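Researcher: Good morning. I'm working through a list of sequences from a screen, and I'd like to move beyond sequence-only analysis. For each chain I'm collecting a predicted structure so we can compare shapes side by side. This is the next one on the list. No need for commentary yet; just the structure.
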Amino acid sequence: MKELKQLLIMMAMVIVGITAMSMAPSSVHAATDNSLAAVQKKGTLVLATSPDYPPYEFQVNQKGKSKIVGMDVSIAKKIAKDIHVKLVIKSMTFDSLLVALETGKADMVLGGMNPTPSRRQSVDFSDIYYMGGQDFLINKADASKYPNQKSLANQKIGAQTGTLQYNLAKKYIPGVTIKGMDKGTDLVLALKTHKLEAVGMEKPTAEAYAKNDSSVIAIHSSYKLDKNSTGSAIAFRKGSDSLVAAANKSIREIKKDDLINKVYLNQAGKYLKVNTANTSMGHYWKYFAEGVEYTLIIAAVSGIIGVLLGVILALMRLANNKLLKGIAVGYIEFVRGTPLMVQVLFVYFGVGVIINLPALVSGIIAVSLNSGAYIAEIIRGGIDSVSKGQDEAAKSLGLSKTDIMRSVILPQALKNIWPALGNEFISLIKESSIVSIIGVTDLIYQLNIVRADTYRGVMPVFVAMVLYFILTFGLTRILNHFEGRMQHDS
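Model: Good morning. Structure tokens for this chain:
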């Protein structure tokens, strides 16, 4: 018990230490302010964005190739060009963008982001580069029922979690019930299936949806907005004064030449037409194929590592050494007691403060560490299920403990735990979808991109469901085959 307490205290100290390290660079950075020089030295300007928000940022499928485009991307390209570096784009969910900035995963964030007072406490913002305004998206059939913002009182309204639209609706619409979701595509699907009466969006995004989907329309809001916090601005890490100044110089040139209205929005509109010219799922087969590929890679690698880790942890838990047993118990209970999503975020952003791990590697590590804890308990249960007489008989033959475990106990335990182990492998395929929150292009990530590109809410979901079923059903048949062979051999 003492060892377990000590282990938990050590874990807490590690977490606190990593948190302190993630915060410390901000103050140092503020004092030295080498942000622009650092970007120019490495030769890349890393942009974090959530490409599901047309016309600000979205993905286009052009001749079978995918790329992130939009008004914000055009602005980022100009800034990168002006400071003579290459633009690198990292894709992730909207609510992870500022975390990526604070932990050094990105140099700046563009995502139709509003510089609210609460956000200004943790990051720096550029000058406002665009005042899009606020709209509501409603079903066309409800146009007479909800002609304006006032008519939305006491209704269910959706908005992206953590956005200005969420807070504005909560503050200014009487009796409203706010439903927050991570993806705009999820909100639109909820609207079209009548789970919501309206969705709060930036005006250009609402108009883009209305223009490309005849079943919805945009209505204007009547919010009394503060221009200093409701326009779109670029977010930077706290203390990045020189980088912010460079961005502001580019923004002034963009405003002077009116590039957003004359060039960038027109370019975004052309890309939107490319996406909506052919919205068949066959046109996006490469997206789904890539999603399946990454899903299988994550599940396969995580499964192998999880088994190896599970065996080690199971043996540690069954050992007579109290320290080893305490470490195994502490690890298993900690991992099983925290959500996989939190673990993925911690590995990518928390551990990323010390080691800058790619999103795919971070996702595999997190899923592997999580799976290892559950597999350890499955293996421990299998070992305990083997009759004690088997151990005694092996000892009477003069076998060592290692030989007994390797040649007698584990083979029999494997037969007992195979169904449970198979269920864990199947769960890995489905649970690996959580890595999409850090931008890994698995099946769920690609599903959301296709929904954003095509403005079709249900069909991409159906295709993903079928693909997941094919993967899990195929794996089930393979596992059943090997289970039958093991039973036959016994």
